[in-house]
Amino acid sequence: MVRPIVKDRLFLSLKSEEATKEDLPIGKDLLDTVRHYSDCCVGLAANSIGIRKRIIALSLHPLELIMYNPVIVKKEKPYTTTEKCLSLGETETTVTRYETIEVEFRDTSFVKRRAEFVKLVAEVIQHEADHLDGIVV
Ligand SMILES: [Zn+2]
Questions:
Q1: How far apart are CA 43 and CA 54, in angstroms?
Q2: How many angstroms does the Cα of residue 21 sit away from the middle of ligand 1?
């Protein structure tokens, strides 16, 4: 189900809580919402749809991904880039990201996984993981 996007800065600055198995359906709504906004958005964190749980979703054709409780455990090759956030409209902010990251997370069956991501996918994961800690670019 597509959910409305939250733009309240104070709400977005709050840290999100660990997701549990009961939160699995939220991930699906989150992915539905990313797909709905695919013309301007490739990923979302759950607080962007009003739910303060550590869940992110990505849709970068052909890759689609829902991650519960993602933790970036390794990052390599820093670079500087500019990013926009759907929640903030057209504002561009300069950030430091890492080209290669390793992430521990739970998948859509809530099974623990560890995977490596590179380039744009890695960048989107870093942006959304920041949202979980209340950091908005
Ligand atoms: Zn954002």
A1: 14
A2: 24
Residue 110 Cα to ligand 1 midpoint, Å, equals: 24
Distance from residue 109's CA to the centre of ligand 1 (Å): 25
The token duo for 21 is: 């198995």
pTM summary value: 0.95
Mean pLDDT of 115-126: 97
Active site residue 128: yes
pLDDT in tens, 56-86: 999 998 999 999 999 999 999 999 999 988 8
User: Mean pLDDT, to the nearest integer, of 104-127?
Assistant: 98
What do you get for the CA distance between the two ends of the chain, in Å?
A: 26
For 9-132, CATH gives 3.90.45.10
CA gap 45, 52 in Å, rounded: 9
Domain extents for the chain?
Answer: 9-132
